[in-house]
Amino acid sequence: MGLAFDVAGLEAYMDEIFPQVADDFAVDALSMEGITMRLKVAERHLRPGGTVSGPSMFALADVTVYALVLSRLGAKALAVTTNCSLDFMRKPEAGRDIIAKGQLLKLGRSLAVGDVHMFSEGSDKLVARSTMTYSIPPER
């Protein structure tokens, strides 16, 4: 199984199905090995103290694995998150986007499992890591 989308096609499809967050995320790179996504950090993503909020980093992890699943299965927007583990390692650097590097650990008929490592743009220090599991609905 190859890729169902290239970067432009994946971004366009995600913008179509999730217009409410289209301005928050970008796909920087996509290959069979994985995906690199970006949270375009804005004032709304910050919490007191000037750091990126946990819910914003959760959203980045979630959308990263969702995009990975779509990149393999194509335009099937029905997969849903069934489990998440998220470890916060250090405070993200202020004023920088968060970069997520994701890879699929398993893509089966009914479940997909992905791993995501998040960094402040320009840094190699891990700010968070997540494992996400998605349920893939059966074909009808």
From TrEMBL:
Identify the residues that the record assigns to the Thioesterase domain, covering every copy.
Answer: 49-124
Instruction: Tell me the domain of life.
Output: Bacteria
Respond yes or no to whether keyword Oxidoreductase is given for this record: no
Whether Hydrolase counts among this entry's keywords is yes
Q: Which UniProt keywords apply?
A: Hydrolase
Q: Which PANTHER family match?
A: 1,4-DIHYDROXY-2-NAPHTHOYL-COA THIOESTERASE 1, BLL4964 PROTEIN
- Tell me what this protein is called: PaaI family thioesterase
Species of origin reads Pseudophaeobacter arcticus
From the broadest rank down, the organism's phylogenetic lineage runs: Bacteria, Pseudomonadati, Pseudomonadota, Alphaproteobacteria, Rhodobacterales
